[in-house]
Amino acid sequence: MADDDSGAYEVLARKYRPQDFDALIGQEAMVRVLRNAFSSGRIHHAYVLTGVRGVGKTTTARIVAKGLNCIGADGTGGPTVEPCGTCENCTAIAEGRHVDVIELDAASHTGIDDVREIIEGAKYRPAIGRYKVYIIDETHMLSKNAFNGLLKTLEEPPAHVKFLFATTEIRKMPVTVLSRCQRFDLRRVEPDRLIAHLAGVAEAEGVEIEGEALSLIARAAEGSVRDSLSLLDQAIADGGKDAASIRTMLGLADRSRVIELFAMVMRGEAAAALVELRDQYRSGADPEVTLNDLAETAHWLSTLKVAPDIADDPSLPAETRERGRELAGQLPMRVLARSWQMLLKALEETRSAPSPLMAAEMSIIRLCAVSDLPTPGDLIRKLESDPPASAAPPPGGPSGGGGGATGALRVATRSAAPQVAVDPHIETPPAPAAETAALPQDFEAVVALIREKRDGILLHDVETGLRLISYMPGRIEFRPAAGAPEHLAGTLSERLRHWTGSRWTISIGDDAGLPTIAETRAEASHSLDQRVRKHPLVAAALAAFPDGELLSIPLNPVGVAPDMPDVPPDDDDDDEMDLLGEN
Ligand SMILES: [Zn+2]
User: Fold this and answer.
1) Are strands 182-185 and 46-50 parallel, antiparallel or unpaired?
2) Residue 223 class from Cβ within 10 Å (0-12 exposed, 13-18 middle, 19+ buried)?
3) Each residue's pLDDT tens digit, 513-527
4) Dist. CA 56–CA 49, nearest whole Å
5) How far does the centroid of ligand 1 lie from the alpha carbon of residue 188, in Å?
6) What is the band of 229 on the pLDDT scale with cuts at 50, 70, 90?
7) Within 10 Å of residue 490's Cβ, how many Cβ atoms?
8) Angle at the Cα of 580 from the Cα atoms of 574 and 583, rounded to 5 degrees
């Protein structure tokens, strides 16, 4: 079937263009319908063939044109789905010189004038063939006027006319035209079919090429036979017949290396990941393609988790598939989903970055930074099962979760030094004497009382000027802070007596006392800021958004520290993801 006697190199896609339906791969459903149509003599007057480029639309149209006009080797045959390929009509059509088979490329002939010839010619009987066949490539490119002109012929087609419309974008075809056609959807060719086809072509060409190289080409062609053959052409011309040179040709990183890179990122090994990324770059991998491959890996592992059967990719080597299953088992779905989102964002950035490699490296660093961090869902669960102490985190523990501190912070009233009541069962508050039962039981209650009585000036003076040394109901000892009014003890004593109806002894002591309320608050706010910055989630957010600022830390009603998130875990999307695939 190959006619290379001219001596010029003929591209593989042309040389191996199928001349009959037996040679057309991957379109069995369409071929079956066409066989039935021919054998029952019910050949539609117009077909529209749609599918991605290079899957065989025009090839199918030409085979149909031959089948319609074939007269068989002995010159007596009728329309057939198996054109002989040797009769006058078949050979003329195969060589593109049949007067009754007219091909129009609508991509370059979009106007009404271009189709007028068709409309006029359709009125006349075929010159030598049985049918006039019009093959229009990229039909969707025709102008509105051109379609309208064509429509008249389609509405009342002469019996000797057949239309074959090929299009990659069926949605751009007018419904008025589509409704008058029988439609065939040509499928992308499955990778294993494509690999087998490429192997056959390579063998026929006497070219030895690695199986993995062929599977790389098949993957890159994304189901297009023509693209796969063009890539094979290129590989032969480049002299690269092994997987490594095909990868270089395609700008691909080794798939297994991409998967290992993904694993490194998931383990948060930023340095190792950068070394690997640069190494892949040096061996020819385009950084954007690498990010794309990483996103593809996130997608592949996610599908492996939820639907192992459809995710199993036969074009991959067995060990790569095994590694994929292993990783899919280790990584929670929500981590995979997060990395997918981050990689999509990274791809966008790469396109506008001054250097794709730089952009890819930044993305890798960012991904590593968040890799080992809990997702919001994790965090809620962790906080639920292991709540942090509500203030003053133990040294070294930014999450403050350890220590089993379940009692609330409370300033002991008998001692100058503050104490954290670790366990309320051990240090219970002293039982108040009967006559003081109605009095504020601790200094905080005194402050609350001042606030309740709306004495703003006293409240300010107490909050900024009083360093508490000791407290008992009816008795307060303190040391004035710098700037405290001289009459503070007197004023406080007078007001408390007035409000509580009891005598209060307010004295000034020599001990240093506790920090003032104002100082404590400032410190808490500062350490809260520090704690929040150290918090894994916030650190991750700040790492991911280096320009981000910590604007406010909403305090929970206790007003001490953000303990528990308000959102119940059931309302969290992450938990739904868990249902899909938590290990
Ligand atoms: Zn024939």
Assistant:
1) parallel
2) buried
3) 889 998 888 888 777
4) 9
5) 29
6) very high
7) 11
8) 95
Mean pLDDT, residues 20-28: 94
Query: 84 CA distance to ligand 1 centroid (A)?
Result: 4
Give the other-Cβ count within 10 Å of 195's Cβ.
Answer: 22
Distance 9 CA to ligand 1 centre (A): 27
pLDDT at 402: 37
How close is the Cα of 19 to the center of ligand 1, in Å?
11
Cα 70 to ligand 1 centroid, rounded to whole Å: 4
Residue 294, token pair as written in the block: 């990483």
- Rounded to the nearest angstrom, the distance between the alpha carbon of 92 and the centre of ligand 1 is 9
* Location of structure tokens 């070394």: 275
Which residue type occupies 193? R
Question: Does the reported pTM lie above 0.85?
Answer: no
Cα(87) to centroid of ligand 1, in Å?
Answer: 4
β-pairing verdict for 475-480 and 466-472: antiparallel
What does the DSSP assignment read for 9-52? PPPHHHHT--SSTTT--S-HHHHHHHHHHHHTT---SEEEEE-S
CA distance 136 to 144: 15
DSSP H stretches of helix in 205-313: 211-221, 225-238, 243-250, 255-266, 270-282, 287-306, 308-311
Return the pLDDT at 523: 82
C-alpha 82 – ligand 1 centre gap (Å): 8
- φ, ψ for residue 375 (rounded to 5)? -80, 165
Walk me through the domains of the chain, giving residue ranges and CATH numbers: 12-185 (3.40.50.300), 437-513 (3.30.300)
335 C-beta neighbours (distance < 10 Å), count: 22
49 C-alpha to center of ligand 1: Å?
23
pLDDT in tens, 439-480: 888 898 999 999 888 888 899 999 999 999 989 888 999 999
Asked if 218 and 228 touch (Cβ cutoff 8 Å), the reply is yes
- Cα of 35 vs centre of ligand 1, distance in Å, is 16
79 CA distance to ligand 1 centroid (A)? 9
| Model confidence pLDDT, tens digit, residues 75-133 | 999 999 999 999 999 999 999 999 999 999 998 988 888 889 888 999 999 999 999 99
